[in-house]
Write a structure and sequence with these properties.
This is 23S rRNA pseudouridine synthase. The protein is built from 2 helices and 4 strands, in the order βαββαβ. The chain is α+β, with helices and mostly antiparallel strands and about 70 residues long. The protein has one domain. A hairpin with a 6-residue loop joins strand 2 and strand 3.
Length: about 70
């Protein structure tokens, strides 16, 4: 499903402010699993979502909830 925003106002000030402070790509894996290329042993790592990314997700959700009726779903 693809969403296209068609509202006039654009993003909320909180969303814009949070994005401006976010100075890296918003990429994260909570779990990474692979097989070691030499030994063949399965290896696994876990990492919590960084706090700045948690805040970004919360602001994005709040912005969507505030404006979801202004989104055309294709």
């Amino acid at each position: 499903m693809v969403a296209v925003r068609v509202r006039q106002k654009g993003a909320s000030e909180a969303f814009i402010s949070t994005l401006r402070k976010f100075d890296r790509q918003a990429l994260h894996a909570t779990m990474l699993r692979l097989y070691h290329p030499i030994s063949g042993i399965e290896m696994e790592w876990h990492a919590p979502i960084p706090q700045d990314m948690v805040e970004l997700i919360e602001v994005m959700r709040a912005d969507f909830e505030e404006h979801k009726d202004e989104v055309d779903w294709l």
